[in-house]
Amino acid sequence: MTELRIGKPNEKQMLFLRDKHRHLAYGGARGGGKSWAVRTKAKLLALRYPGIKILIIRRTYPELQNNHIRYLREELVGIAKYNDSKKEFQFPGGSTIQMGYCNADKDVDQYQGAEYDVIFMDEAGQLQEEWIKKINACVRGVNDFPKRTYYTLNPGGPSHGYFKRLFVDRRFEKNERPEDYAFIQAKVTDNHALMQSQPDYVEGLKILPERLRKMWLDGDWDVYAGQFFEEFRNDPDHYQDRRFTHVVDPFEIPDGWRIYRSYDFGYAKPFSCAWWAVDYDGVIYRILELYGCTGEPNEGVCWTPDKQFREIAKIEDTHPWLKGKEIHGVADPSIWDKSRGDSIYDTAMKYRVYFTPGDNERIPGWMQVHYRMAFDAEGYPMMYVFSTCKAFIRTMPLLMYDEHRLEDLDTSMEDHVADEVRYFCMSRPIKPRMDIPKPVMLADPLNQAGQIGKYNDARRILTHG
């Protein structure tokens, strides 16, 4: 058998080759040497464990051909044979590296019942989360071979939120063990071979539009192409001064601030209810939320309207920020529908949970959300979210533009929080803010009540008239 030569890996590729986690993600930016790492790891595993079954998956077969098959056929000459009908490399010791693709729901069916010891999902961010989970179920077998899944990816794509949760934010759900998951961040600057052979590659990344540059050069998971609310920022370094962030730590709500409620009904899909505090300058703070989700994305808890409003009433009767407050509510106008008997709003009134119908104009509504999220010349928005409002923080950054109605968002995504936010913003419309000169600092920018300082109050008054 011909000796296998793999070349010299860079530092990040070496970490990838040595890693033994059950789930390992590698990449996070363009040009990090991901495809080479996949092929090399697969070859080494096939030779180290005779009889092991390996699967490499890409979105389409042409991608497999261009990124893996044509290279492996050269690299494995005299070591393994390629069976074109099975799309499989076969090693003398019985190991196999099979090539697979998944570009639609029906493509997942070809893996049903199959067993693999190790699966590589190359450019995994382009696969649907549901496909990823189903394919991952194929990693099994009664043998002593390693059982692992490797993902190479960049920010963006249909499963951006799934991978960000697991490998970047490290927020784990039931049956997900943190010790099983690891992430190796690899950027173009880690790929010394590419930097030497194509020194202008990184310069090409630097001149991309801001969002693409942050994704592909910096590996920034907080932005990605097609993001509907691209203004959204969650920067813990600015939680205290509240500049260039929408997320802030919770604080006691001053007595003089008014409290509001927004609501979007759901049953099989999640329902969303939020409570907002409005300060003296009209800045809105999302202080609490109740989100009816099972834990699986976009899957509702199937609570009846009676149960939803009973829980909402309980929260308002007991929470110290809400108890005894006059709360004004706004909701999806569809809850007033009586075509099938009592409306959902009839149920709400039984629990003294009152609403006015929200303005359901979508495009003007989204513009109001954009206006609220926009930062002024000093870096302050007109909307803040308490860090405890996890549904907002998780779902809002993941929403994308509709392919057919470019001003609207894709309603097939988990947009229930966004709809409820839209109703509230439309109930308190503002004009787009114009940048104004920086005022002279006259006071501490953060006073004891946790409000924006007096000089910012004056600036907002000037801005909004």
Strand content: 15-25%
Structural class estimated from helices and strands: alpha/beta
The assembly state of the depicted protein chains is single chain
Order of strands in the sheet with the most strands?
3-4-5-2-6-7-1-8
Low-confidence stretches: 435-465
Rg over C-alpha atoms, rounded to the nearest angstrom: 26 Å
**DSSP summary, beta strand count:** 15
Principal-axes geometry comes out as: elongated
- Spell the H/E element sequence: HEHEHEEEHEHEHEHHHEEEEHEHEHEHHH
| CATH level 1 class label of the largest domain | Alpha Beta
Structurally, the number of domains stands at: 2
Can you walk me through this structure?
This protein has 2 domains: 11-216, P-loop containing nucleotide triphosphate hydrolases (Rossmann fold, 3-Layer(aba) Sandwich); 236-464, Nucleotidyltransferase, domain 5 (2-Layer Sandwich), CATH 3.30.420.280. It contains 15 helices and 15 strands. The chain has an 8-stranded mixed beta sheet with strand order 3-4-5-2-6-7-1-8, with helices on both faces. Mean pLDDT is 86; it is low at 435-465. Helix 12 (362-373) packs across helix 14 (416-427). It is of the alpha/beta class and 465 residues long.
SSE blueprint:
Layout lengths: L10 H8 L4 E5 L6 H15 L4 E6 L2 H15 L5 E3 L4 E3 L5 E6 L3 H4 L9 E4 L7 H8 L11 E6 L6 H9 L12 E5 L6 H6 L3 H6 L3 H7 L30 E2 L9 E7 L7 E7 L5 E8 L13 H14 L8 E5 L12 H7 L5 E2 L4 H12 L9 E4 L3 H6 L20 H12 L26 H11 L1
Parallel strand pairs: 1-7, 1-8, 2-5, 2-6, 6-7, 9-15, 10-13, 12-15, 13-14
Antiparallel strand pairs: 3-4, 4-5, 10-11, 11-12
Helix pairs in contact: 12-14
